[in-house]
UniProtKB/TrEMBL annotation:
Disordered: annotated span: 57-86
Top-tier EC class: hydrolase
GO BP terms in the entry: DNA replication, removal of RNA primer
Presence of keyword Magnesium: yes
Keywords: Endonuclease, Hydrolase, Magnesium, Metal-binding, Nuclease
Ranges of compositional bias, category Low complexity: 57-83
Provenance organism: Shewanella denitrificans (strain OS217 / ATCC BAA-1090 / DSM 15013)
Function of the molecule: Endonuclease that specifically degrades the RNA of RNA-DNA hybrids.
Protein name as annotated: Ribonuclease H
Superkingdom of origin: Bacteria
Reaction(s) the record says it catalyses: Endonucleolytic cleavage to 5'-phosphomonoester
InterPro entries (alphabetical): Ribosomal_bL9/RNase_H1_N (IPR009027), RNase_H (IPR050092), RNase_H1_euk (IPR017067), RNase_H1_N (IPR011320), RNase_H1_N_sf (IPR037056), RNaseH-like_sf (IPR012337), RNaseH_domain (IPR002156), RNaseH_sf (IPR036397)
RNase H type-1 domain residues: 91-239
């Protein structure tokens, strides 16, 4: 069988692969995955340097293996389309922050990341808070807390700010459940409150900002750029084992960043 080269423009990991099994892991069940096979490495490299649309158009294509759909550009669901439409409208806001936490396995090595947009343009990426024995929930809360600290400085400067987290748990912890726990002396009927220290910190900032800050849940891995970037940063924190929370200091090259390992 002739060797094939698989280009993945949009998937859990992007790039050029020579193994179908590796390609499938990247694109199978990944919303709006974009990929195509080529017979030569030169063709694959030339295609990857261009956009997916330039190589495969906007409809179905011919890559098909196993359980992966024949369509290399999966049709988005109504909810995904709605989410993307909504996020396209966020350019009207001054500051939008996406947060994410990762853990491999869970519990295991954990890290946090965020992506910050100003007037719809990506301006900053942050990552870190590595913990060798963390959990996904703690990593999500850490990321949200860091976003709240940034939001406070932006709000104080007169900006309108919205934060998006893909963790319903984190959002509910600091914006709903914390009020009841606090009223009961930071306790609950079910016993100990997990992640209480970071919940207290994040809730304190949220409570101060709640009248001027928008905090909302966003679906994970449905192709929303900010969420994907925050995800890559959380995994980068694990890869680099960085205990501090630092600004990403490399060029903000979207293709390069999105090609980093996904969580």
């Amino acid at each position: 069988m002739a060797k094939k080269y698989y280009v993945v423009w949009s998937g859990r990991t992007t790039g050029i692969f020579t193994s179908w099994d590796e390609t499938k892991r990247s694109v199978d069940k990944f919303p709006q995955a974009k990929y195509k096979s080529f017979t030569t490495e030169a063709e694959a490299k030339a295609a990857f340097a261009k956009s997916a649309a330039a190589s495969i158009g906007t409809g179905s294509n011919t890559v098909s293996k196993g359980s992966v759909s024949k369509s290399t550009v999966a049709s988005p669901s109504a909810s995904q389309s709605s989410a993307k439409s909504k996020h396209n409208e966020l350019e009207s806001l001054d500051i939008v922050i996406y947060t994410d936490g990762g853990c491999e396995p869970n519990p295991g090595e954990a890290g946090s990341g965020l992506a910050l947009y100003h007037k719809g343009q990506l301006t900053e990426l942050w990552y870190g808070l590595y913990h060798p024995k963390g959990t996904n929930n703690t990593a999500e809360l850490n990321a949200l807390y860091q976003a709240l600290l940034i939001a406070k400085t932006k709000l104080d400067a007169g900006h309108k700010v919205q934060i998006f987290s893909d963790s319903q748990y984190s959002i509910k912890c600091i914006s709903e459940w914390a009020y009841g726990w606090k009223a009961k002396g930071w306790s609950r009927k079910g016993g100990e409150i997990a992640n209480l220290d970071i919940i207290k910190l994040a809730h304190g900032v949220f409570d101060e900002l709640k009248d001027t800050l928008k905090l909302e849940h966003v679906a994970a891995h449905v192709g929303i750029e900010g969420n994907e970037l925050a995800d890559r940063m959380s995994i980068l924190a694990i890869t680099e084992k960085n205990p501090a929370f630092v600004k990403y200091d490399k060029p903000l090259d979207l293709k390069a960043i999105l090609s980093l390992r996904a969580g």
